């Protein structure tokens, strides 16, 4: 399987496919066509077929795809077949919301450790997650084999925390702060700037009207 070399745009659609396939499997469906998938996930069927072609023989033309084998395959590809522990740095408003959120659309992602400097929460358990002082970061990240961290600290201390995380062995960072962080090339970063997303939406509404002809126009 050429898992490593799939385009990023394809990789981004995998969780979407996976979620719907799980729904299909739960409702007892065994086959699905790219057209059916297309209608629900709002990705055109040619793109779906192209995406799936990166994973080798997953179905035969005309017969549809086998739901179970797709599901097993995607579960492995998305590491949904094993538990992924994630660290959260900064238990403020956003951090708290993420702890509450629980990522319940995935069975196997869980925030297993949170870190903060606030004396009133360090040493406590918030929504089932222990909050550690920053001085325990390296030890806990190693102990819990955590490779991914969610960053919800103030911008002013973002880079400082990133440096600490990298030193502790973190490989991927979901950066909720509005600043662009500096990382070595082997660290994966996903920037999630909620204000920016909302401003983009407002811009699109004002400049293109309420509905664009194709969702891809926004995605590009
Ligand atoms: P949000 O930005 O999520 O709405 P907030 O406004 O409640 O949060 P912020 O000042 O943004 O609070 O801080 C977010 C969290 O980061 C707080 O819990 C704060 O204690 C924590 N924090 C502040 N400085 C650091 C630091 N150097 N390292 C780790 N956590 C920190």
Structural description of this entry:
The chain has about 220 residues and is α/β, with parallel strands linked by helices. It folds into 2 domains: about 5-75, Arc Repressor Mutant, subunit A (Orthogonal Bundle), CATH 1.10.10.10; about 85-195, Rossmann fold (3-Layer(aba) Sandwich). The protein is built from 9 helices and 10 strands. It has helices at about 10-25, 35-40, 45-55, 65-75, 95-100, 135-145, 160-165, 195-210, 215-220; strands spanning about 30, 60, 65, 85-90, 110-115, 125, 130, 150, 170-175, 190. The strands form 2 sheets. It has a 7-stranded mixed β-sheet with strand order 6-7-5-4-8-9-10, with helices on both faces. Strands 1-3-2 form a 3-stranded antiparallel β-sheet. The longest helix has 19 residues, at about 10-25. Bound molecules: adenosine-5'-triphosphate. The site of adenosine-5'-triphosphate has 17 residues, from α5.
> How many distinct beta strands?
10
What's the mean pLDDT score? 89
Rg, Cα atoms, Å: 20 Å
Q: Give me the secondary-structure category.
A: alpha/beta
Query: What are the bound molecules?
Result: adenosine-5'-triphosphate
Order of helices and strands: HEHHEEHEHEEEHEHEEHH
- The CATH architecture of the largest domain: 3-Layer(aba) Sandwich
CATH class of the largest domain: Alpha Beta
What CATH calls the topology of the largest domain is: Rossmann fold
Q: What is the count of helical runs?
A: 9
Q: Order of strands in the sheet with the most strands? A: 6-7-5-4-8-9-10
Largest sheet: 7 strands, mixed
CATH superfamily of the largest domain, please?
A: NAD(P)-binding Rossmann-like Domain
The total number of structural domains is 2
Strand content: 15-25%
- Our measurement of the CA-to-CA distance between the termini, rounded to an integer number of angstroms, reads 27 Å
Q: Which runs of at least 5 residues are low in confidence (pLDDT < 50)?
A: none
General shape:
globular
Helix content: 40-55%
Pfam families: CoA_binding (PF02629), Put_DNA-bind_N (PF06971)
GO cellular component, one term: cytoplasm
InterPro entries: CoA-bd, NAD(P)-bd_dom_sf, Rex_bacilli-type, Rex_DNA-bd_C_dom, Tscrpt_rep_Rex, WH-like_DNA-bd_sf, WH_DNA-bd_sf
Subcellular location: Cytoplasm
